[in-house]
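Following up on my earlier thread - several people asked me to post the actual chain instead of describing it. Fair enough. Here it is, all 134 residues.
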Amino acid sequence: MKITVIDGQGGRIGKTVIEQIRAKHKNLELYAIGTNTAATAAMLKAGADFGATGENAVLVNAADADIIIGPVGIVFANALLGEITPAIATAVGASRAFKILVPVNRCNHFIAGCGENSLGEYIRLAVAHLETML
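Reply from S.P.:
Thanks for posting it. Predicted structure:
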């Protein structure tokens, strides 16, 4: 099973997701795909097995991922302050992978039905959903 974590900016969401997965599953292969080197480095430091950076890395890894985890912005063109290119959003959205998206109400969008939980709680819920799939 190929679990791909995609993040941008400083990689805080991806880093926390990888730390929580790694704490329970030492043998899962985790792919850290950052839209920039800081995000990739943070996720690798958190325990990802493989890492790559940039638009092409997202396109290649989204194509054969079984599960993609990341902030909801990875499916919105120009999100994450412009780091999510239209090609990235399309690749993630079109991927056959099951997507587990962490809701973040910023960058000019609002997720209806999303409560007032902390980012940490949303990440915990995303990882808990992954647990049900394993």
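Residues 119-133 form the longest helix (15 residues). That should answer part of your original question.
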